[in-house]
From TrEMBL:
Its EC number is 5.1.3.2. GO terms for molecular function: UDP-glucose 4-epimerase activity. It comes from freshwater metagenome. InterPro entries: Epimerase_deHydtase, NAD(P)-bd_dom_sf, UDP_G4E. Its cofactor is NAD(+). SUPFAM superfamilies: NAD(P)-binding Rossmann-fold domains. One of its GO terms (biological process) is galactose metabolic process. It is an enzyme of class 5 (isomerase). The keyword NAD applies. Pathway: Carbohydrate metabolism. This is UDP-glucose 4-epimerase. Residues 3-261 form the NAD-dependent epimerase/dehydratase domain.
Length: 337
């Protein structure tokens, strides 16, 4: 299929572009580069040995979005594009609602106008609110921050669209904690500012860009007191997107929801120690107070995706750390401008 990947220059999007090409699909990327560097495209072309068509514009621009569908032959869309920083969303709610919902409105309208019926939507475990332990897809969704609400609302909007237009084939993919990098070490996670997330922060400590890791609380009701999360290698996550896309080509369901996670929890200190093994030395950290909004434990029940997509995670936490370290040590300052 010829697949439009929105946010395809981003962390998860770029890894999914590689997986799509490897599975024999054609790819077109649209990205506004608000949270990605153009350098990624050259890295993707070097890894695939193919030209990757890229359109650089804001998806909330409905005319540009419709023009893309009018001038290219798109069979399916994988929609990653969106703002995703929880803390920033609390400070700038209108930007988050306008951008995240507006880009989805624009995309789906263009899809309907051009009879494109397959959409894979990047959702998040954050829609489980504070009830993220052993989460199954039938749990009610709610959020504790504007970013999370944009995901809850987009899921609801897409469910309503599927009722109104049962010819649509939509997959809602709820990611847990994506980490890791392509084993080549040439693409990876490159936060534009101080990393909010644990793995890139540890990687920047290891490469000398940050002094030490701050562990946000060790008084949670977990085995070692630190937060437990379901880390999923971005390569496994990309494979899950290809599996979901190919499922849409054969299913009779207008809309399906799948958790993409390992089903296993790893604590902050366990991840830190696994990373130390990858680096071969101890890394400095300091336990500080809890971060507002954090839950103690979050991990998926991935059995629905395992059964219906024939997909499961393959990579270990050690591989997640080794691949992250290879990317970070080969690119100490991330992607060049
Ligand atoms: C993981 C654990 C922290 C940083 C977030 C978003 C979620 C999703 C995935 C988009 C927690 C601890 C972290 C640090 C720390 N994003 N931590 N020191 O919060 O589970 O999920 O990213 O969909 O929406 O909320 O991931 O990596 O920020 O935190 O101790 O410097 O690491 O307390 O226990 P989180 P995270």
């Amino acid at each position: 299929m010829r697949v439009l990947v929105s946010g395809g220059a981003g962390y998860i999007g770029s890894h999914t572009v590689l997986a799509l090409v490897a599975a024999g699909h054609d790819v077109v990327v649209v990205d506004d580069f608000s949270n990605a560097k153009p350098t990624v495209v050259g890295r993707l072309e070097a890894l695939t040995g193919r030209h990757i068509p890229v359109h650089a514009f804001d998806l909330t621009d409905i005319d540009k979005t419709e023009h893309l569908f009018a001038t290219d032959t798109i069979d399916a869309v994988i929609h990653f594009a969106g703002y995703k920083a929880v803390g920033e969303s609390v400070q700038k709610p209108l930007d988050y609602y306008q951008n995240n919902l507006g880009s989805t409105f624009s995309l789906v309208r263009a899809m309907q106008k051009h009879d494109v019926d397959k959409l894979v939507f990047s959702s998040s475990a954050t829609v489980y609110g504070t009830d993220q332990a052993g989460a199954t897809e039938d749990r009610p969704t709610f959020a504790t921050n504007p970013y999370g609400w944009t995901k809850v609302m987009q899921e609801q909007i897409l469910r309503d669209i599927a009722v109104a237009d049962p010819e649509m084939r939509i997959a809602l993919l709820r990611y847990f904690n994506p980490v890791g990098a392509h084993p080549s070490g040439t693409i990876g996670e490159d936060p534009s500012d101080v990393p909010n997330n644990l793995m890139p922060y540890i990687a920047q400590v290891a490469v000398g860009r940050r002094e030490k890791l701050q562990v946000f609380g060790d008084d949670y009701d977990t085995p070692d007191g630190t937060g437990v999360r379901d880390y999923i290698h971005v390569e496994d996550l990309a494979a899950g997107h290809v599996a979901a896309l190919e499922k849409l080509a054969v299913t009779d369901e207008p809309i399906s929801t799948w958790n993409l996670g390992s089903g296993r929890g790893t604590s902050v200190l366990e991840l830190l120690h696994a990373f130390e093994k990858a680096v071969g030395r101890e890394l400095p950290y300091e336990v500080v107070g809890r971060r507002a909004g954090d839950v103690a434990t979050s991990y998926a029940d991935p059995s629905k995706a395992n059964a219906e997509l024939g997909w499961s995670t393959q990579k270990t936490v050690e591989e997640m750390c080794a691949d992250t370290w290879r990317w970070q040590s080969q690119n100490p300052d991330g992607y060049p401008d």
